[in-house]
Every structure is written in C-alpha cells, then in structure tokens.
C-alpha cells in the first residue's frame, strides 16, 4: 500500500508539473509578444494610417479593417453554420449520407487556408468581379470559418440533454420551436464560446485574405460613413488589408525602417484583441445565460 | 349516436388541420436544410476545384502518379535526364508525416496530463486557469507563432542541437504548442464523458487517486483520447504559415531532424504566388493540395473508426 | 407580439430610408474610374505609393494595388482579369505565359546582391566561387577564404524573379542546388542575419547593417556599377498591360514613367530609374549602349 | 419460473392472457389502441397492445424492465415516431391518431407527457409554464399569470415558488422539478396525461406528494402512468395492465390484478417472486 501511495504522490505531482508547464508556455508566449510589442503602442500607432516606406506608420486602418471584416464574416457565416448545425444534429438521420457530409466539412477545415484564399480569389475576385474587396474577403473568411463554426455549434447542441428536447416535443411544440426556444437558449454559453474562439481564428487569419481582401489599405476618411463612397470605412467594395495580413506583409517585403517595431506592435495589438475576445466571451456568456434562463 | 359521430368528425378535422407548429416545422426544416446544402456546396466546390487542378498534373501534364509519390526531386520547372519534369513529392510527404507524428508524440502526454489535471485533480483551477489558457492558445494567430518560432525556437534549436536551426525539430516544437490546446480540450471532453460512478466505485475499493485515473478513467476514455490525438495530428498536417517559417523549406529528403526540410503546406504556400495558373508548376502545387485533402480524409476515417470501436466496447 | 412587429417594421423602413439617403448623397465624383494592379510583392510598395500620389492629384480615380506574386500578376493580366500586372521578370521568362498581347512597361531597375552573415569572413567572391557555393561544390567558407564554418544556402522560392535574375546573371545560368527556400526578401534578410554561415541574395534596398553585401569579382554592389553594367545582377521591374493601355491605365503608367515618379519615389524606394541607365538589356541578355543619363 | 418461455415463442393465442377492458358508463373510453405493434429497426419491441383507457381514471402500466410498457406509453402520443415504427391504430375519442396526416403537435397538446427524469427547461419557473402557452397564441400578461398560477396550484407547487417565479427552474429540487413538469404539461389543458415512471427519481416524501397530486388531477384528466413501484400502482390506479416481454398479459381493475391475478406470471410479479 505504501508503494501505491508513493506512486500516487509522484504521479499527481508530475501532473501538477505538466499543467504548470503548459501555463508557463502560454505565459512565456504572451509575455514575449507583449514585452516586445507594448513599447511600440501609442495612440498614434493605433490610429494613424500605415506608411509604405517611411518611418512612423500606424495600423489604424488595418485595425478597423480587421474588425469590420470580422463582423461581416460572422454576420454571413453564423446563420449558415447555425442552420446547418441544427439540421445535422436535430433533423438529419444517422446514416451514411450524414456521415459523409460531416466528413466533407471536417476535410475542408483541415485544408491550408491559402487554398481557400486562392479559391476565393478565382471565384469571388475574378469570376464574380467583386475585385479585391472586403466583400470578397468576408466570403473567403466565411468559407474558412464555416466548417469550424458548424462543428462547434453542433457540439454545443450536443451538450444540451436529450430530455430537454423530449420535454419540448411533449408540449406539442415542433422540433424547430423546441430547438429555437429551448435548446438554443440553453446552449448559448457554449455556442458563444465557440463563436468567440472562431472569431479569434478569423481575426488572426492572413493567408485566406492575401488574395481576396487584398494587401493594401488605402487611407480612409473616418468622417464619411456613407457606405457608397470609396474612402468610407463602411464601403464593402474597397480593398482592405487586415492586421494579420499587415504583419505578414511587413515581415516579408516591408522596407520601412521601423518594420520590426511595427510588426511586434501589431502582434501585440492582435493578441490583446484576442485576449479581449476571450474575456468578453466568458462575461457575455454568463450574462446571456442568466438572462435567458430566468425572467 | 348521430351527435357523437359529428363530434368525432369535428375532432378529426381539428386534429388534421395544419397547426402553426407544423408550418413552423416545415419552415425550419427548409431553412436549416438549405444552410446545410450551402455548406455542402461550398465544400464540394472547393474539393472539386482542388481535385480538378491537382489531377491535371497527371492528365494534362502526363506526370506519372508513381513518380509523383516516390520521386525525391522537386523542381517542376526543370526537366530531368529523360525529359520528364521533376515532380517528386516524396520528401515533402515524408516531412509532413514526420513533423506531424513527432509533434503529436510530444503533445500527447502534455495534453492528456493537463486534461487529467483539469478534470480529475483540480477541477476548480482547471476551470479558472487552464481552460481559458488553452482557449487563448487556440486564438493566437499562426503568423505570430511563426515569428516567435523564428526569433526564439530556431536560435534555441541551433544552439542546443546544432545545424542551422531550421528543420523538422523546430517545426515540431512550434506545432507542439499549436496543437496542444486542441488536443487538450478534446481530451478533457473525453474524460468528462466518463461517468462519475466509475471513479467513485474505484476509490471506494481503496484505489489511490492515481490508480483510479490510470486504471479506470484513462482506460474508459481511451477511444475519446485517441480521437483527440488524431484530430490534433490532422490540424498539424494542415498547418502552413507557422511551419513554413521555421522548417526551412528545402524539398530534400530529411536526413536528420536539424536539417532543413519541407512539408506539403510549406511548399504549397511558398510557391503558389510565383507560378502561373494552368502551368505545370502550378498544377503540381495543386497536386500537393490534393494530397493534403486525401490525408485529411484518411485522418477523418481513422477518427471515425476509433469512434465506432469505442461505441462497440 | 404585435408591438414587436411594429418596431421591426419601423426599423426596417428606417434602414431602407437611410440606405437610399446614403446612395443619393454619395460623392459621385469619387466613384469614377478605378484600375487594379496585381503581382510582384517587391514592386508593390512603389506602385502603391505612386497610386496614392496619382489619386491625390486626380480626384475621381482609384488605383488598387495588390501583391500575390509575379506568377499571379502575369497570369491575371494574361486572362485580362486586371488592368496591370506587376512583374519582376520578362513575361516570356515566366513559364506558362504564352500571350503575345502583353505590352511591357519598364518602370524601374533593381540591383540584386549576394548577402552573407556578417561572421562568415568573406567580402569578395568571383563568379566561379559564387557558382560553386550555390551549386554545392563548396560547402565550407574556409574553401573560399572565409571562416571555418559550413555554408548555409537560402534561396528564394522557385519562380521568384529575384532568384531567376540571380541565377541568370550571378551564376551564369547555373541552377542552385535544392536548399532552404523563403518566399520573401524580408524573411531572407532576417534569416541570413541570424544564421551563422548563411548566404542568400536580395535587392539593394533590403541590404542593411545586419548583413554583409558581397563584392563580386572585385566589383561593389552599387548603383553606379549597375548603371554602366559593371554589376551584372540586376533586372527591370515591369508593368504589363494586355494590349496597348487606354484610359486611366495609360495615364497612370505614363505618370509612373514620368520624372515626377522616376526622380522621386523610384529612388526613394531604392530602385534605379531606367532613365539613369547607360545601357539597355533585352530578354536574351543582349546589352546595347544608350545615350546615358538624362 | 419461466414456464411460458417456449409457449411464447409460438404464438400469441397460445399465451396465457387475461384481458378485461374497462366497462364503466361513468367513465367512457377516451383512448384505445388496436393491434399496436412497435418495431425498432427490424426487431419488434411490442407485439400487441390492445388496451382501452377510461376517462378521469388512473391506469397503471406495470411490468419488468424491458417489457415494453414505456415503449407502449411513448407510442400513445407518438413520441417514438423518429426512432421506431408504430403500426396499428391509436383511437383517441374515435379518431385514429396514428395516421400520417394527423398533426402530431395538436395531438400532443391533447395528450401530454411527463418523463422519468424531471426535465425543467433552462428558464425561469414562470417561463417554464408560460412559454408553451405563448407559442400557442395565449397573450396578455394577466391571462398568462392566471394560467401559470392555476397550473402551479394544481401541481401543488404554487405555495413553494410563488415568491420567486423568476428564479431559474434548474435550481428546484427533484420533486419540485417534477411537479413543475406536470404544471407545464397541464397548463396546455390536455385531455390525457401520460406519465413515464414520474417518481422513479424522487425520494419517498416527494413520491407520496406526487401521488396525492395525481389523485387530485384525475378529476380533470385521464392519467396513464408507467411505474416500477407496485405499491404505487395499487395506491393510485383504478386499472392496471401487466406487460411482459413486449406483450400485455393481463389487464383488469387494479384490485383484481393485485388480489386475484389470473395469469401465473402476473401473480409472480405482483407478489415479488419475479425478476
């Protein structure tokens, strides 16, 4: 028995060690990014437009583009993913067709995003003549995002117990009403987590956007919110380099003297934004769950 | 008697009238089904697109499939002694597999250990620290991983293991951190699915916590854990930007872990902008994408197989 | 329930009204012409900066400049999907480009130099030595008079314009052995700077304090040497159009070729202007003397 | 013990069975099944269930695990549609509701169901009861408040929760949750209430409270209850059906079943010598 106890102690101890190490890795990662990036941050950096080859450019336009593109992509992909996940989990019969569809979706999610980007380029930019634009980028991101989101929503639906569905059906509700009024509210925290996590991935995606939303960021006129004007931030037909693409670009071909500083500053901004997403997700999830589950 | 029959008829009418619920049900089915159709159309379009371009190497450019899979020289722009283009993808296939398997090997104990910690030993700290931490790791963009790899991992590998620092080893380290969160959170799900009473029964029999974890919980969760690992491998196999920055991108058969090597994704992303659509060079790159797609299919089938076995047990 | 419907209805009407209002009040003058230039990432900053200046001076125009690589630029201009294809190469040098329609506009000259890690202890190589290094006949720096350190070759990706130029003029057409490949100059420089024994090649504008530029056969990689072709590793930067350009495309290319850009932006970005050159080189490498700098 | 094993494999007619349908003019038949067969895939889970149920009475379905009683109950309001094939007729007040053109949602409003495990929705107590009403077009806060109160009173839950109707229903105890599920079901004013082992997850005190509630409810509803607990069946039901291996072997008044069973297996089962 002594041996077992000792073994127990050692094993549990090493589990503590492993988990500690994982936390350490993250802290080191974050620390590295923030320590090298935070000194670059300033109001000017966050709001000024980028400069092609001179010092002192900012990432204001890129930052705005990232958020705008993210919101558009989410607006397009969330309803589709939600619908598909509902069909797959709630309606589809458990047969080989369903299984084939699931496999196909999985496969799409493991393709390198540059392939999705090139497909988006040939289809949206060239064929549909959308040009290098936010819209093309949003569609490409939708393609990139749909498999992940569908899967995560389906998982969320799975976390809601089957007896909740029976309860709804036994009250004479249709399956659709049951899902909408009972299952989805109960699954909101977990769906929200999935959405935010995929938002983080979309926010940091570069390869799919290089060929679709483009890698140039014409200066915007932030006083002009008329989406039909070319210099308006809201115009969905303008090319829009995002923060992640910007990092990629200045690291590969940037010739401005402060390229390195801009790159680490942008990385820090990106990571901070994703951190904020995570905290917001947790907070909102809790709030929303409370709102939906009690009067 | 007559009265009764009319009341039956009216009840039947009421029961057969299409209620609002029935209409909503039809509407819901149509809406959600069309969403699914849309996704499937997207998937089919992309897969079809990649396949048609990837197959063109063999049909239009007449490269033999065997040469493609076993050739070691990757110079699509150049013809070899027999006048055939050099499109041997073996070194990249080997590179992709090596890096995937190695990173999975390192990540698995860490991921399962962390999942066990989160689920069995300290659920409180698990929920408060580890889960947010792993979710954060998922969110860090691969570009950023790549640059940290380039500025930290590569010099580290160079000073400790020698060589130029670029190679499979550095790629493995970077991928290890990248797949860790995926495998951890899926493993945690698998452990969570093991019923409480398994643990209670084992502890009641006088087993230590570790014995319970090792002999009962991990055993019961094995199929789920394997799924998690295979899934992590699938992610690693398809990762492009981060690996590309640290592996060195030399389409050579890897002789050691610290020599530059290449993966399918790294060659694909590096080369695609420098080739012209429809040319052999471009088609050959799409063939690499096709290989990736097929591998992803294989990984999926493995996951499914494990899942089925798990259910049978 | 009905109340909610009302609010939804009013909201929808407001939204539509807002949209119509926005459409009516849009700046018509700004929605004028627009063209797209795609291709070489190396050329992108120049065209982008020129585009910004041009649109600043000519209201109502919009010039959309994107990267994607030389291959992408040439294949898109060949298909007519864009108005300008930016290229580091002569179109006929790029495999897969067959169109005879493409019209070349040389807007800049870029000098390319071998760069090495600062600790390699080598400042000068002959063409033979350089070729030997890149073909793998020489594997240690001490064999060419440097430190005792293995040579680490870093290439640009296959199909890259910089690599094609380097192999053609720096290595007399020999092909580099398979080695590390990177798809951008910035990455190459960073890797050469941090990797002992590394050698690669970049455009002049990417050379900085972190790396050493090599002399070749005793000739220094300077603009003066490029101008009279003493330094042979250089290439033109091209804007390709499908057929003779018209309209905005024509005006814009003329603008880029004009002294307004050639004397300012082109030089600020580390390029040479074709106007400065004393010689002209065609796709086959044939050199002819021309009048000299204007 | 298993005297009839080989007999059963032969045919229904050979089985020892004793079926007496209710016949009480005070309590006419509201629901009856005729020639009902249920299949899961190709295997038959219920071979025959011909039972009639009397209005405003409690009918108990008893039998060992896997005897088909739950399958039978769930078939009555077609909750098994997605997972099983149900053949035969389910006559609800003279209308066969096991037809494809029947609107199951309307039918389930009239034939409600409460499940083994309490399954309150992740909503407030108030909304648990009110929300199906809202979806069925009941509007007006006053009317809803009234219906919620009446339903909760009928389910004997009102006094315990009236002060915090806005609280999440997930915080209720098992017995309270189960009564909330009953309140939720009766809020729709069903005709028949099906209960699938409603007390199996409850403690004895909650169970006896639940039984009291059911006895009151039968004044307004026809109740069919599946139970494992024979004392419970004896205490609350007027009629009892005994299921074994997918068949109804005996159906009669509860007093007959428990005091004078005609079939040997029933007798063994109710006396506790079986299974």
From TrEMBL, chain A:
Which Pfam families does the record associate with it? Answer: BPD_transp_1
Q: Which GO terms describe its cellular component?
A: plasma membrane
InterPro entries linked: MetI-like (IPR000515), MetI-like_sf (IPR035906), Phosphate_PstA (IPR005672)
Chain segments annotated as coiled-coil in the UniProt record:
none
Q: Where in the cell is the protein located?
A: Cell membrane
Q: Does the keyword Transport apply?
A: yes
Domain ABC transmembrane type-1: from-to ranges: 63-281
Membrane topology (UniProt):
Multi-pass membrane protein
User: Can you supply a Gene Ontology BP term from the record?
Assistant: phosphate ion transmembrane transport
State which residue ranges cross the membrane. Answer: 12-35, 67-89, 101-124, 130-149, 182-203, 261-281
What GO molecular function annotations does the UniProt record carry, in alphabetical order?
phosphate transmembrane transporter activity
Alphabetically sorted, this entry's keywords are:
Cell membrane, Membrane, Transmembrane, Transmembrane helix, Transport
Q: Domain of life, per the record?
A: Bacteria
Name the protein family. Answer: Belongs to the binding-protein-dependent transport system permease family. CysTW subfamily.
Give the protein name, as stated in the record.
Phosphate transport system permease protein PstA
From TrEMBL, chain B:
Q: Where is the ABC transmembrane type-1 domain?
A: 93-303
Q: Which InterPro entries match?
A: MetI-like (IPR000515), MetI-like_sf (IPR035906), Phosphate_PstC (IPR011864), Phosphate_Transport_Permease (IPR051124)
How does it sit in the bilayer? Multi-pass membrane protein
Which PROSITE patterns does this entry report, sorted A to Z? ABC_TM1
Q: Name one GO cellular component term.
A: plasma membrane
Cellular location(s):
Cell membrane
**One GO term of the biological process aspect:** phosphate ion transport
TM segments?
Answer: 26-51, 89-112, 133-154, 160-183, 225-247, 284-303
Q: Which CDD domains does the annotation name?
A: TM_PBP2 (cd06261)
Q: Which GO terms describe its molecular function?
A: phosphate transmembrane transporter activity
Q: Which keywords fit this entry according to its UniProt record?
A: Cell membrane, Membrane, Phosphate transport, Transmembrane, Transmembrane helix, Transport
The signal peptide stretch is: none
**What does this gene product do?**
Part of the binding-protein-dependent transport system for phosphate; probably responsible for the translocation of the substrate across the membrane.
PANTHER family xrefs? ABC TRANSPORTER PERMEASE PROTEIN YQGH-RELATED (PTHR30425:SF2), PHOSPHATE TRANSPORT SYSTEM PERMEASE PROTEIN PST (PTHR30425)
In the record, the note on similarity to other proteins reads: Belongs to the binding-protein-dependent transport system permease family. CysTW subfamily.
Q: What is this protein called?
A: Phosphate transport system permease protein
UniProtKB/TrEMBL annotation, chain C:
Q: Which UniProt keywords apply?
A: Cell membrane, Lipoprotein, Membrane, Palmitate, Phosphate transport, Signal, Transport
Q: Which coarse location class describes where this protein primarily resides?
A: membrane
User: Which GO biological-process labels does this protein carry?
Assistant: phosphate ion transport
Kindly give the InterPro entries that the UniProt entry links to this protein.
Answer: PBP_domain, Phos-bd, Phosphate_ABC_transporter
Q: Which domain of life is it from?
A: Bacteria
Where found? Cell membrane
Where do the PBP domain residues begin and end?
Answer: 29-258
Q: How does it assemble?
A: The complex is composed of two ATP-binding proteins (PstB), two transmembrane proteins (PstC and PstA) and a solute-binding protein (PstS).
Q: Provide the function of this protein.
A: Involved in the system for phosphate transport across the cytoplasmic membrane. Part of the ABC transporter complex PstSACB involved in phosphate import.
Q: Known NCBIfam families for this protein?
A: ptsS_2
- The protein depicted here goes by the name Phosphate-binding protein
Species this chain originates from: Levilactobacillus namurensis DSM 19117
Automatic annotation (TrEMBL), chain D:
Name the UniProt key words of this record, in alphabetical order: ATP-binding, Cell membrane, Membrane, Nucleotide-binding, Phosphate transport, Translocase, Transport
User: Could you name the domain of life of the organism this protein comes from?
Assistant: Bacteria
PROSITE patterns recorded:
ABC_TRANSPORTER_1, ABC_TRANSPORTER_2
Entry-linked CDD domains: ABC_PstB_phosphate_transporter (cd03260)
Q: Which residues form the ABC transporter domain?
A: 31-270
Name the GO terms of the biological process aspect.
Answer: phosphate ion transmembrane transport
- What Pfam families does this protein's entry cite? ABC_tran
Query: What SMART domains does this protein's entry cite?
Result: AAA
| Single GO molecular function | ATP binding
| SUPFAM superfamilies membership | P-loop containing nucleoside triphosphate hydrolases (SSF52540)
Membrane-spanning residues where?
none
Cellular component GO terms, alphabetical: membrane
NCBIfam families named among the record's database cross-references: 3a0107s01c2
UniProt protein name: Phosphate transporter ATP-binding protein
Species for this entry:
Levilactobacillus namurensis DSM 19117
Q: What is the lineage of its organism?
A: Bacteria, Bacillati, Bacillota, Bacilli, Lactobacillales
